[in-house]
Every structure is written in C-alpha cells, then in structure tokens.
C-alpha cells in the first residue's frame, strides 16, 4: 500500500509524468530487448494465447522500449485503454481511479543488468510486457476496469487489503485452466523467467481453484515466488464474479473470519496440485 498523498515534484495531480521516450539510452533499449527475447522465447506454450496475440496487436514485439503514445493509440482502438507513465507505485486511490478510467499506470524506468531476475518495484518491463498485452483482450480489459471501480468502493469501505489480494492472485499471479492444461496469465509471472517455469512446473507450490471469498482471506508474499497459485476457469468467469458480487456484505462476512496462510489448503479448495512446499523450506529462514 502506498500512502503518501502528494504527487512528487514534476508529476501531475494524478501522479502522471511524461515517459520522455526520447531520453532512453541504447543500453536501456538493449535491456528491454534482452528481457523481451528471453520471455517471448519461453512463453508460447506456457502463457494464454491471448497474451501472445496482445504482443502482436499492440506491436510490443518490435525492438526497443515501447513508446506509450504509439502503444496507447493501438490500445485505445482495441479496448479503449491507454498507458500512462508514473514515477513508481502510486497511492491506492490514485491507482484505482486510473484503472476505473481505463488508464494503466506504468513505470518508465527499466531495471539494470544486475537486477535482471529480481527487483523490488515494478519497472517498465514488468508493467508493459507483463500487464499491457492482455488489456487488448476485451473481457480482460473489462475486468481491469471493474477492478478499478471495485477498488474505489473498497477504499470507501476500508477494504483495500481484500482487493489487493484479489489483484495479487489474479492480475499479478493468476493461472487459468485450458483444455490443453494450466496456463499463465498473471503479469508478475509472465514478466519473470524463473517464475514462469516455477508456477507451472515446480512440485513445490499449491495450485488451487479460484474462489473469491477464500482468496480474499489469503495472505500473499511480495518478495518471493508464491506458495499458492489460484486457477480461474475463464476471463469471463472472473469478470462475472467481480461485477456480480456485492462486495459490501462480503467484506462484512469476511471481517470475522481468520486469514489463510500463504501455504494453507482450505477444506473447500479444489486442488489441482497439492504442493510439496519444498521451495519454501529451502528458502533462508524468516
Ligand atoms: N501503483 N504504479 C502502481 N502500480 C501498481 O501495480 C500498484 C500501485 N499502487 C497500489 C497497488 N498497485 C496495489 O496496492 C493495489 O492493488 C491496491
Ligand atoms: Fe504489476
């Protein structure tokens, strides 16, 4: 959660800044190309086909860091979304307000070679390669706007943490069931080489059926691979549950119920794989 209330110097009241695309160095464009080549080579039979289609429709598969003006032109024609640059994480309400108005906020900085496999804050590769291609899919584009609208309501009800969990286990780290098997769609996974392998192939994590109420009670880890991934049946189903659920009474119900730990299995869970949690044990002790 980001709580500062004032935008930093140089940012507009809605925290947007210019991408200043002309200022990227050759090394920064090369960093993007390295990351793009690695992910686009390993994703095709792991990620939902709609993701690869989005890379194509939005011409993100051209060399170099995408120019947000050109990207937004194509995205606007596809689903009415645009991409705007921000200095970094923005306060929750600002974030939700942008999503509710079909504006995806993206960092404009790119990681350095020593950060190729992990960085704390989302950079332009995480935000644009990870999040933007699916915004060209009409159903997912509707879901992201509904999420933003839900977030503004949650902010009024003091329930942002519930929405943050929904975002985390779908938009960031979601899996989806397809006839040919489980597939990736979460941006945090598809922008990471290691986690794109781990989330589908590793015996360590649980893979559990998406259940909105249970998921809103489930904690998440921000500094490591997930110990549980949640599997949706379709983007249509995810959108329907988000639009149809009256969240106010749901938050009241959840208030009295304990959280689930990141590695818990609930007796109501649909279990695709019960993980060994070996990776978690292998990690350095907390
Ligand atoms: N700001 N730039 C940016 N990107 C995010 O993904 C983001 C954010 N602010 C808040 C936030 N995400 C989450 O805490 C929300 O899901 C609540
Ligand atoms: Fe993200």
Automatic annotation (TrEMBL):
SUPFAM superfamilies: Aromatic aminoacid monoxygenases, catalytic and oligomerization domains (SSF56534). GO terms for molecular function: iron ion binding; phenylalanine 4-monooxygenase activity. Its cofactor is Fe(2+). One of its GO terms (biological process) is L-phenylalanine catabolic process. InterPro entries: ArAA_hydroxylase, ArAA_hydroxylase_Fe/CU_BS, ArAA_hydroxylase_sf, Aro-AA_hydroxylase_C_sf, Aromatic-AA_hydroxylase_C, Phe-4-hydroxylase_mono. Keywords: Iron, Metal-binding, Monooxygenase, Oxidoreductase, Phenylalanine catabolism. It catalyses: (6R)-L-erythro-5,6,7,8-tetrahydrobiopterin + L-phenylalanine + O2 = (4aS,6R)-4a-hydroxy-L-erythro-5,6,7,8-tetrahydrobiopterin + L-tyrosine. It comes from the Bacteria. Its EC number is 1.14.16.1. Pathway: Amino-acid degradation; L-phenylalanine degradation; acetoacetate and fumarate from L-phenylalanine: step 1/6. Fe cation binds at residues 126, 131, 172. Gene3D superfamilies: Aromatic amino acid hydroxylase. Residues 1-286 form the Biopterin-dependent aromatic amino acid hydroxylase family profile domain. Belongs to the biopterin-dependent aromatic amino acid hydroxylase family. This is Phenylalanine-4-hydroxylase.
């Amino acid at each position: 959660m980001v709580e500062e209330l004032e935008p930093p110097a140089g940012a507009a009241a809605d925290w947007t800044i210019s991408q200043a695309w002309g200022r990227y160095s050759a090394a920064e464009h090369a960093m993007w190309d390295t990351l793009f080549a690695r992910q686009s080579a390993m994703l095709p039979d792991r990620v939902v086909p709609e993701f690869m289609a989005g890379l194509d429709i939005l011409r993100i598969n051209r060399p170099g860091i995408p120019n947000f003006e050109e990207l937004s032109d194509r995205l606007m024609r596809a689903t009415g979304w645009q991409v705007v640059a921000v200095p970094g994480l923005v306060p929750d309400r600002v974030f939700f307000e942008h999503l509710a108005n079909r504006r995806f906020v993206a960092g404009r900085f790119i990681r350095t070679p020593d950060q190729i496999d992990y960085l704390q804050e989302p950079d332009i590769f995480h935000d644009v390669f990870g999040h933007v291609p699916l915004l060209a899919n009409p159903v997912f584009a509707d879901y992201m706007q509904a999420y933003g609208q839900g977030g503004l309501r949650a902010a009024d009800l003091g329930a942002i943490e519930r929405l943050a969990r929904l975002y985390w286990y779908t938009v960031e780290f979601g899996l989806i069931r397809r006839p040919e098997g489980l597939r990736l769609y979460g941006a945090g996974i598809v922008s990471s080489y290691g986690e794109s392998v781990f989330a589908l192939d590793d015996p360590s994590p649980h893979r559990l059926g998406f259940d909105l109420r249970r998921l809103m009670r489930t904690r998440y880890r921000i500094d490591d691979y997930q110990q549980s991934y949640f599997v949706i049946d379709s983007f249509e189903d995810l959108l329907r549950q988000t639009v149809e659920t009256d969240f106010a009474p749901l938050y009241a119900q959840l208030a009295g119920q304990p959280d689930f730990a990141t590695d818990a299995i609930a007796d109501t869970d649909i279990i695709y794989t019960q993980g060994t949690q070996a990776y978690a044990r292998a990690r350095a002790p907390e």
